[in-house]
Amino acid sequence: ASVTNGGAAASAGIQAGDVVTGFNGNPITDASDLTAQVRSVAGGSSATLTIVRDGQSQDIKVTLGTLTQ
User: Fold this and answer.
1) Which residue from 1, 38, 54, 62 puts its CA 20 to 30 A from 7's CA?
2) Residue 51 to residue 56: CA distance in whole angstroms
3) What is the rounded CA–CA span in Å between residue 16 and residue 32?
4) How much is the pLDDT for 58?
5) C-alpha–C-alpha distance, residues 63 and 61, integer Å
6) Which pairs count as long-range contacts for 3-8, CB under 8 Å and 24+ apart, including other chains?
7) Quick check: pTM over 0.85?
8) CA nearest neighbour of 24 among 49, 53, 45
9) CA–CA separation, 42 vs 17, rounded Å?
C-alpha cells in the first residue's frame, strides 16, 4: 500500500502498489508468508524478490537489513 521514504523497501526499489509474489524462488501467498520467508534468511544476506508492477513480473535483488536496538 505504501513505502516509507528512506526505508529498506524504498532502498531496494520497491514502490507503492508492487505486489510481492516470490522470495528466493518460493511463492508468496500473503504477508505472513513473506514475513516467514524473510525471517528464515540471515540479516545482511542477499535475496531475490519477484514482484508484479503495472502487470509485469520482475525480479529485484535486495539485501536484507538487520534490527538495531
Assistant:
1) 54
2) 8
3) 18
4) 97
5) 7
6) 8/65
7) no
8) 49
9) 27
